Amino acid sequence: MSDQLIIFDTTLRDGEQSPGASMTRDEKLRIARQLERLKVDVIEAGFAAASNGDFESIQTIARSIKDSTICSLSRANDRDIARAAEALKDAHRGRIHTFIATSPLHMEKKLRMTPEQVLEQAKQAVRFGRNLMDDIEFSAEDGYRSEPDFLARVIEAVINEGATTINVPDTVGYAIPELYGEFIRKLRERVPNSDKAVWSVHCHNDLGMAVANSLAGVKIGGARQIECTINGLGERAGNCSLEEVVMAIKTRKDYFGLDVNIDTQHIVAASRLVSQTTGFIVQPNKAVVGANAFAHASGIHQDGVLKARDTYEIMRAEDVGWAANKIVLGKLSGRNAFKQRLQELGVELDSEAAINQAFTRFKELADRKSEIFDEDILALVNVDGGQGQESQFQFISLAQQSETGERPHASVVFSNAGQEIKASSDGNGPVDASFKAIESEVKSGAEMVLYSVNAISGSTESQGEVTVRLQRSGRVVNGVGADPDIVVASAKAYLSALNKLHSNHEVVAAQG
Ligand SMILES: CC(=O)SCCNC(=O)CCNC(=O)[C@H](O)C(C)(C)COP(=O)(O)OP(=O)(O)OC[C@H]1O[C@@H](n2cnc3c(N)ncnc32)[C@H](O)[C@@H]1OP(=O)(O)O
Ligand SMILES: CC(C)C(=O)C(=O)O
């Protein structure tokens, strides 16, 4: 059995199934580029048949990414599979991932099909896919709650039809590590042609065991592909987290004895990019990528780490991308230092004009703030996607009055397609007043489904980063704004979300 473990990232597909995490095509491409830097083996870029937006995202990623295999999910039917193949047509290496549920519950209640019908449909789907592409993954949805005998028949049949990867998901996060590992091991023993395919695990985190279950699927079960997402993003409580599972395999190589291709130094940048794009904040005590993952507050620990780092650290912060700042960026820094830091953070701006715009914003911020941290830079390049695109709505200025006992009032000046607009309103608080002011002019009719504030670098001198999630006619978009003034950051986030709602070229993918 191979010692190589394939890392299959599904941030852009299962990750996007987190309510509120839908991403635009350009956001998905930016994340795909970071996944490529990370040297992820397979990037599941979306579900081509779900929407034209998702199709275009997969197609764009397939045309841009060279070093990772690009994959699209599809139901087990000809239409979905043909759509996936079409989206992947220009990929350097493409994979069709087709699935159908095999558990009694899903077959009877959801698909309303008999097991024999499911078996036939699975075979037919893989046969159809194999005529379009060589690399075919088959997933038995709700595999862990399936009858082992029936599941083994399905898997044997789809391998005979040419499936090259077999995935046995714990779709609802019901598994226990030891039991899941044994389940996979016994299945592999029972399926006569099991050695003709790579076995894969895809675990959900409903009971907080997705990483442990995935590792057991590998160690006990013999799987050689793990499906995971950055920050553990994903449907409901999420998926197995890439950063945790990869660092477990690397840190405990003595136990797992496996190699992964991942360039771990890009992990923190990937985590920040996904967090800022989706508005899903990473908790400070999150393993590997949380702000406190390598922080020591108590004297005995600090003393130990100063004497010998490994007294309290099992990984090196630098190995996952917590680079110690060698150059402090501030108002006296030049373009080269700024560009260098962007590069280190994995941010690729696609034109000199985009770099110049970002640099101008950096200087404006540096005038108000003595030290600029990495989080500040990521925030300012993310405000308009960092691509230097002309947005329809642009923030100009804001004034607000609030006094105890008085109803707060805000006046916002912004531009709409270049035309300056002044708007004002009262509100329950200054943020509410500024949103109402903008809405009184734009009249988007969108519903706000999330408002969150994150102080992005430590002290009260830091920038506040605000995420606003708006929903209109089934479309969900996230806007992000950053500024040392939290009310200004909020107005910027609101306008950024409106830009996405009004944008034609950035098509928002459908929710799963
Ligand atoms: C465990 C997972 O993460 S699975 C992936 C989840 N991701 C998504 O659902 C992607 C986003 N989804 C969508 O955009 C839509 O649901 C679509 C385009 C896929 C399908 O839309 P619709 O055709 O309108 O169907 P709808 O979503 O209402 O129902 C799903 C249908 O697919 C069937 N189906 C579900 N899974 C499968 C499958 N793997 N293979 C074949 N058919 C399936 C269901 O039985 C149902 O059929 P029915 O209409 O005959 O009852
Ligand atoms: C379609 C499969 C891989 C899936 O997402 C699941 O079962 O959770």
Automatic annotation (TrEMBL):
GO terms for MF: 2-isopropylmalate synthase activity; acetyl-CoA C-acetyltransferase activity; manganese ion binding
Protein's pathway: Amino-acid biosynthesis; L-leucine biosynthesis; L-leucine from 3-methyl-2-oxobutanoate: step 1/4
Reactions catalysed: 3-methyl-2-oxobutanoate + acetyl-CoA + H2O = (2S)-2-isopropylmalate + CoA + H(+)
A GO cellular component entry from the record: cytosol
This protein's UniProt keywords: Acyltransferase, Amino-acid biosynthesis, Branched-chain amino acid biosynthesis, Cytoplasm, Leucine biosynthesis, Manganese, Metal-binding, Transferase
Organism of derivation: Comamonas suwonensis
HAMAP family with a match to the protein in the record: LeuA_type1
One Pfam family, short name: HCS_D2
Annotated region described as Regulatory domain, given as residue ranges: 394-512
The name this protein goes by in its record: 2-isopropylmalate synthase
Positions that bind Mn(2+): D14, H202, H204, N239
Database matches in InterPro entries: 2-IPM_HCS-like (IPR050073), 2-isopropylmalate_synth_dimer (IPR013709), AIPM/Hcit_synth_CS (IPR002034), Aldolase_TIM (IPR013785), LeuA/HCS_post-cat (IPR054691), LeuA_allosteric_dom_sf (IPR036230), LeuA_bact_synth (IPR005671), PYR_CT (IPR000891)
NCBIfam families assigned: leuA_bact (TIGR00973), PRK00915.1-3 (NF002086), PRK00915.1-4 (NF002087)
Subunit: Homodimer.
BP GO annotations: L-leucine biosynthetic process
Top-level taxon of the source organism: Bacteria
Signal sequence interval, chain numbering: none
